[in-house]
Amino acid sequence: MLLMRAHDPDVGDHEGRVSDTTYWFTIGGGIEPGEDPATAALREIGEETGHTKVRLGPPVWYRECILTVKGEKRLFEETYFLAWTEETELSSENWTELERSVIKDMKWWGIDELMASDDIFYPLCLKEYLPPLLNGEYPAGTITIGL
């Protein structure tokens, strides 16, 4: 599983608390006008990794969370898709200035390594919901997950 590691001092939890530690999260970002979530996912994968030969699967998870960005509370609505690629090399060539300032690393994780890690992963329930997907057990529809 490909994850990015970041720290953004302008982003805090729903109460505005900012962590001093870095955290890992899935590839993705905002939806542009006229895009649906799947189109946005493919665009974000290309921009953030350089991968253009990606097969997007079904949406499997959905979550909502409130984060504080530059002192303002914002609702984030996230749709998580399965995606497959044969590409393994990673590129940051198309990152925005903000991405360059907050993203510290990108890494392919093996499931055993991820499950054994004490690092922070978002969504926080990633370790709970990921193993069934990797075993080919896909939900019948998109399920709502927690933080």
Write the layout of secondary structure elements.
Elements: E1 2-6, E2 11-12, E3 23-26, H1 37-49, E4 54-69, E5 72-85, H2 97-102, E6 103-108, H3 111-116, E7 121-122, H4 126-134, E8 143-144
Parallel strand pairs: 3-7, 4-8
Antiparallel strand pairs: 1-3, 1-6, 2-4, 4-5
Structural overview:
There is one protein chain. This protein has 147 residues and is of the alpha/beta class. The chain has one domain: Nucleoside Triphosphate Pyrophosphohydrolase (Alpha-Beta Complex). Helix content is 23%, strand content 35%. It is built from 4 helices and 8 strands; from the N terminus they run βββαββαβαβαβ. It has a 4-stranded mixed sheet with strand order 6-1-3-7. Strands 2, 4, 5 and 8 form a 4-stranded mixed sheet that branches. The radius of gyration is 15 Å and the shape is globular. The chain starts with a strand and ends with a strand. The mean pLDDT is 94.
Give a brief outline of the structure.
The protein is α/β, with parallel strands linked by helices and 147 residues long. 23% of the residues lie in helices and 35% in strands.
